[in-house]
Amino acid sequence: MSIFYKEPVKRVEKLLKEYNSNLNVISLNSSARTALEAASSLNCKVGAIVKSLLFKTENTFILCLVSGDKKASLNKIKKTLNIKNVSMASANEVKDITGFTIGGVSPIGHLHKINIYIDNSLERFDELYAAAGHPNCVFKINFNDLKKITKGLIEEITE
User: Fold this and answer.
1) Angle at the Cα of 46 from the Cα atoms of 56 and 139, rounded to 5 degrees
2) What top-level class would CATH report for the domain 2-155?
3) Using CA atoms, how far apart are residues 58 and 42, in angstroms rounded to an integer?
4) Cα–Cα nearest to 156, from 71, 87, 86
5) Which pLDDT score, from 0 to 100, does residue 8 have?
6) Which end of the chain offers a freer environment for a tag, N or C, measured as fewer CB atoms within 10 Å?
7) Are 16 and 144 in contact (CB under 8 A)?
8) How far apart are CA 24 and CA 33, in angstroms?
9) Global pTM?
10) Where are the domains of the chain?
11) What is the pLDDT averaged over residues 106-125?
């Protein structure tokens, strides 16, 4: 499994192991680039897939973790952060800020410190799956551990 030697996956795996030695990166034979593909590959509900979405605000970037069956709400994000402007980050900004390419953005292991917001709808699931630095790599985690490992704030940020 040569993808395990890719630096972004190793970065995620190191943090998972430091947090809990029982957490592992799962390498899939099929793509998990989209929430639908990931759910199909993992045989789980699409809502149990954590989408890591980078947004550009007036003066910084934020990462929103949202359920695969939900859509991030720019209006709710603006209201939560009490700001006027927020937009999706470009592919280049995602790579520069997180160190991951779109389709493999992990909730952990970013190159720069990013404030993280976790949508409360993810609480519905006992087990969640999030990208681990590559479109074919994920990790399984529960909601409470996701909150702790990311130091994310729980908010209602989806439609």
Assistant:
1) 75
2) alpha beta
3) 37
4) 71
5) 95
6) N
7) no
8) 18
9) 0.95
10) 2-155
11) 97
